[in-house]
Amino acid sequence: MASMMQPQIILLKEGTDTSQGKAQLISNINACTAVADVVRTTLGPRGMDKLIHDDKGNVTISNDGATIMKLLDIVHPAAKILVDIAKSQDSEVGDGTTTVVLLAGEFLNEAKPFVEDGVHPQNLIRSFRTASYLAIERIKQLATSIEGKSLQEKKELLANCAATTLSSKLIGGEKDFFAKMVVDAVIAIGDDDRLNMIGIKKVSGGNMRDSFLVNGVAFKKTFSYAGFEQQPKKFLNPKILILNIELELKSEKENAEIRLSDPSQYQSIVDAEWNIIYDKLDKCVQCGAKVVLSRLAIGDLATQYFADRDIFCAGRVAEEDLKRVAAATGGTVQTSINDVIDEVLGTCEVFEEKQVGNERFNIFSGCPSGRTATIVLRGGADQFIEEAERSLHDAIMIVRRALKNSTVVPGGGAIDMEISRYLRDKAREIAGRSQFFINSYAKALEVIPRQLCDNAGFDATDMLNKLRQKHSTGEGAPYGVDINTGGIADSYANFVWEPAVVKINAINAATEAACLVLSVDETVKNPKSESAQGDAAASAMGGRGRGGAALRGRGRGMRRR
Ligand code: ADP
Ligand code: MG
User: Whose CA is nearest to atom 11 of ligand 1?
Assistant: First the structure.
């Protein structure tokens, strides 16, 4: 009660909510574990999917950690950190998003008893950082390089990595089919860094196996005017003119003011408009192009004009598609139709408008610079195709990463078991409490194989014992969970491969996130300025409730006044 007698010091705005101390830290850890529990069951080839629907009625079915985390709309400030690492893993390497969340949750879970026993979080943080450093060093040692292999060999290796990624997805049943497609697409774009050079087009209907890869660009037929039917729909080696201008008769009454002194002048204005558009169209024809594309509208007059001259045209092509056509065909987007020289025209072996399912597609294949590829995805329900697209995106990212970093590690929990064993061995060499902390970090890494077993319905304890035993022999490094038989198997031999960078990034990000959560001992919530009164009242009520827990922590934790 002594504190009550002291003069009050007001540091924070009226209505500010703060809670602090050990209890706060434990509550943050609990929130993060709860989030990890949500995605837990999606891990691995036998993982389940989540169906998430929002208040607008959008339904998403996904197995992808990052997508689920994004859609969960998490409000807890500490748990939001997990959403962020899932997102960053997604953009950085593209796969391993569930892994990173699970690891972070498990690190925190292992840290919790220590925090409860009064270990200072900074000690834990230091040991966790050391452990992650050791773990990453070990991964680098164990990784196998695919450098110096022939293209065919490389393709097979990459396909294995893609297949591992895809095996945990809805389209896992067709993983080899899609893995090959993804590898071909990634190899097609070469060193190009731009991911958007691989387009994925979704056409609902048909079978998954009807999906195909276009070595070039494909996009849905754009809106077209009368006269379009008379245009030819197939060309061999056409010249392609790519525009960013409107080919439409502009009726000036909408956007210009013209003052006339004599009514007879009106006709000359109308004539001028017609002359302008005809002049533009003539120039398009004169440059020898057989296919005219524009990002802006191509009106009915132009459509008919082109049809009469056996030219194909498409207006309002999406910018993304137009850029890819330019890159693939070697053309340049023109913003003016004057002085079009041959060099700015693109070309490809075959241009064709084709029926795909219920849609018509414009397809440019056999492109000379070959820096683009398009995957046309087929399948039943919309949600299914969307998830398939996300899965392919993961696989594409993985193949690109593997191609760039060119080292792989065995998956199926093998690498996790191996670094866990390594860290336990290392911990024995350390005197002091740090040994315990590193040991629990090592234990946390086992969450991956354990969860893979749980999700597949295997006895996780039994399996982990087998794995621990195998890894302790010194030759068991590539041994992981065999999803098909329920035993342990050499993941290398089974081609369950992951790019090393996925694991390195996941361990790095998860450790950082865990340390971040551990380093927070106070959260302060500022009241919203306009509804300060209402919020203050509400938080005073809630604050009391939580205050109880906080009080047990450090004897403080009530709302400051
Ligand atoms: P993430 O979002 O973290 O990539 P996934 O659901 O894709 O999560 O699961 C990835 C895990 O599943 C990795 O640890 C990987 O090694 C494992 N895995 C993938 N395919 C297999 C397989 N055929 N057998 C065993 N484990 C596999
Ligand atoms: Mg994955």
Answer: 44
